[in-house]
Design brief:
380 residues; TIM Barrel; Immunoglobulin-like; 6-stranded mixed sheet; 22 strands
């Protein structure tokens, strides 16, 4: 990878009695993937510009990132505050160690006519317009379709390097109060016969899975009445390809920033190798599934946690797999809601409904008296 933008800290606005101050807190990242350059990203949930006094503590924290290219600020301020934002960025540049660069993410609304975006861009070394969560999305869309002819001239007129922000993440939303909402995946609903699935795509080629309850049902402690709908939006390789193709047509564009890097257990975010392959800068992943194992460290038996590594998690047809053990199993403990079961002394079968695979799906724990190795075969 060329550059990795690492979320290392948060800018906070604290209100306490008569005290009103801004501060910056960091968490040192560990085990970062290899990249040519690293940027330290600071975010804030405050939709307002930090005061000039906040630049000093932020610059002080950045001294811990000597090997980083610079800092990127992810602050979604109102368009009306761009002039104040430019003043803050100027002060930050003054406070930063010599040679450190400043990057910002930017809302598309900032680039409409007669705003102060030009003053902001003067104070930064690069900017990243975000083509996702634009506030105009309909039908579950996260990504915005990129019109290079419309946006390229607006960005290149400043003569500053810029990258295009493209979403590689998904989202679940619904009209029920679901606890642990972020852990809900399409698999949870697809394996429940009380839900009916409808599939569509957004203008940016994201996949939208809409599950509607056709009768009363319950998932964990969440109750679904008939007609209640849940929707999952998932980025696809087509989303990435279309965004990258548009970026190539924009003069002055120095690349694409994909948001965001997922955890292995994240069911709604594309994995980095998938994204880079879709962008045309890495070879395609091996299309064959495989089994990854983690030793459960049991004392009297051999217990292994099994994970299906699936290069095609959003495949439209239903799919079946056979997982084979090199030795007979005493028993297999399937993960809750995962449709896997033992069908022989050394055989586990898995049936996945359409669209509900995960790049790394935990199947359960295999237990045997002897050490075992595992393999998987997808049935045609």
């Amino acid at each position: 990878m060329d550059s990795l933008y690492v979320h290392v800290g948060t800018i906070n606005h604290q209100h306490w009695r008569n005290e009103d101050r801004w501060s910056a807190y960091i968490e040192q990242p560990r085990d970062l993937p290899d990249a040519r350059h690293y940027w330290a990203v600071f975010r804030t949930e405050e939709h307002e510009v930090p005061v000039a006094a906040a630049a000093a503590p932020l610059a002080e924290q950045l001294k811990q990132f000597e090997d980083y290219e610079g800092v990127q600020l992810d602050i979604d301020i109102p368009t009306s505050q761009l002039r104040q934002y430019a003043a803050f960025l100027h002060e930050l540049h003054v406070q930063l160690p010599k040679g450190k660069k400043v990057s910002i993410t930017a809302l598309l609304d900032w680039f409409r006519d007669e705003t102060a975006i030009g003053e902001v861009v003067k104070q930064v070394d690069e900017f990243v317009p975000q083509f996702y969560d634009t506030g105009r999305d309909r039908d579950g869309a996260i990504a915005a379709k990129i019109d290079a002819a419309q946006w390229g001239p607006r960005f290149s007129r400043f003569g500053k390097p810029y990258r295009i922000g493209i979403s590689a993440f998904g989202r679940a939303k619904g009209r029920v109060p679901i606890y642990g909402f972020n852990d809900l995946s399409p698999l949870d609903l697809a394996t429940d016969p009380a839900f009916h699935l409808e599939v569509s795509k957004t203008p940016a080629q994201e996949l939208v899975l809409s599950y509607r309850a056709i009768r009363e049902t319950k998932i964990e402690w969440t109750h679904f009445d008939p007609g209640t709908a849940m929707q999952f939006t998932i980025a696809t390789a087509d989303t990435i390809r279309a965004g990258v193709a548009a970026a190539h047509k924009m003069p002055g564009c120095r690349g694409v920033l994909f948001f965001r890097w997922p955890s292995w257990s994240d069911a709604l975010v594309m994995q980095p190798d998938e994204v880079l392959a879709a962008a045309g800068v890495a070879p395609p992943a091996d299309p064959k599934p495989r089994i990854a194992t983690i030793d459960g460290r049991c004392a009297a038996v051999h217990c292994i946690d099994l994970y299906l590594i699936d290069p095609r998690p959003a495949s439209p047809p239903a799919r079946r797999f056979k997982v084979k053990s090199s030795t007979e199993l005493e028993y297999f403990l399937p993960e809750k809601k995962v449709p896997a079961r033992m069908t022989g002394p050394s055989l586990i079968e898995l049936a996945l409904p359409p669209y509900c695979g995960q790049r790394r799906l935990y199947l359960g724990r295999g237990v045997s008296l002897k050490p075992a190795t595992y393999s998987v075969e997808e049935l045609q």
